[in-house]
Amino acid sequence: MKLAIGSDHGGIHLKEALKQHLAERGIEVNDVGTYTEESCDYPDIALKVCREITAGNVERGVLVCGTGIGMSIVANKVDGIRAALCGDVFSATMSREHNNANVICLGERVLGQGLATCILDAWLDTAFAGGRHARRVDKIMAIEK
Fold first, then answer.
1. Per-position b or e across 37-64, b if 16+ CB within 10 A of its CB
2. In the predicted model, is pLDDT for residue 87 greater than 90?
3. Of 122, 139, 132, nearest in space to 86 by CA
4. Using CB atoms within 10 A as the burial measure, which of 40, 65, 67, 130 is most buried?
5. DSSP 42-94
6. Mean pLDDT score of the chain, rounded to an integer?
7. Given CA atoms 36, 41, 42, 48 in this order, what sign does their dihedral have?
C-alpha cells in the first residue's frame, strides 16, 4: 500500500509521528508537506493529498490539522474523495467498511499520538465490505457528477 500524507502547521508533529509508524509497518508514504511549523493554509495541503489519490499515485491519504475539520471539509470537495474525520477506532473502522473512505482526517490538538495511531491502524486494516454499502457509495459518488 502507498499513502499520501499531509498536514498544516497545526498537525505537523502528529504527521511526523504517523509517518514513522507507517514506515515501521512497511507502508510507503509520500509526504506532501508541510515541513515546518511556519503557518500555512490547510486547503493547499489537503488538495495535494487528494490529487495524489485522484491521479492514481497512491491508494489512500492521511490529513492532519489541529482538529481535522478543515482538512475534511476541503478533501470532500474533490471528486473521487471520501474523507472521514475520525476521533475513535469504531468510526475509523466503519468509514472503511461501510463508506470506503479513501482519506482519513485526524486532529493533533484533539487526539494523543497513541490514540491517533490506533485509529489509523484500524482504518488501514479494514477492508470495504461492499454489498449494500457499495450501492450507497455509488450514490455518494453520483452526487459529485
1. eeebebeebbbbbbbbbeeeebebbbbb
2. yes
3. 122
4. 65
5. HHHHHHHHHHHHHTTS-SEEEEEESSSHHHHHHHTTSTT--EEE-SSHHHHHH
6. 97
7. negative
Local structure of 14: helix, strand or coil: helix
Q: What is the pLDDT of residue 119?
A: 98
Given a cut of 90, is residue 89 above it in pLDDT? yes
Domain around 12:
2-144
Quick one: pLDDT at residue 109? Answer: 97
Catalytic status, residue 98? yes
- For the chain, what is the domain count? 1
In this predicted structure, the answer to whether residue 144 has a pLDDT above a threshold of 90 is no
**Residue 56's domain is classified under what CATH number?**
3.40.1400.10
Can 65 be counted among the known catalytic residues? yes
Strand order in the sheet with 60-65: 28-31, 2-7, 60-65, 103-107, 83-85
List 65, 86, 118, 133, catalytic entry: 65
Per annotation, catalytic residue among 13, 21, 98, 133 = 98
